[in-house]
Amino acid sequence: MQGMAETQLFEACTILFGDHLDINRQFLEYLQLAGVRKAYRQRALETHPDVITGRAGTLAPVDTSAFRQVQQAYEDLSRYLKAREQGFVFHGPPPHAAPRRRPHSASEWRQAAGRSSRPGQPGPG
What we know:
The chain is an all-alpha fold and 125 residues long. It is built from six helices and no strands.
């Protein structure tokens, strides 16, 4: 796990667990889904717009960026832990890179599969 993905995971840990911890590779190796869920629930209660509005007793618009950061951190760490459980480690693009477009037509499907667009004709390569 190198590059952008690792730094994103470190940032996600800092968002959920706070900056008072030493977040490093050993921390990521030790990390468990139950701990991530617990930290997420605590941080969500601290940053959720509905909870903040209820505490303030006003209907003024609330900044939701902190809650969105907490949600994204939880998603990133959950994705990492599930991949780690299956033996995968993030390399290359960050976990929330844009997904590749799926082929829509039959000819695009054949092209993606490396086959010719005409029956009976050999595919490329």
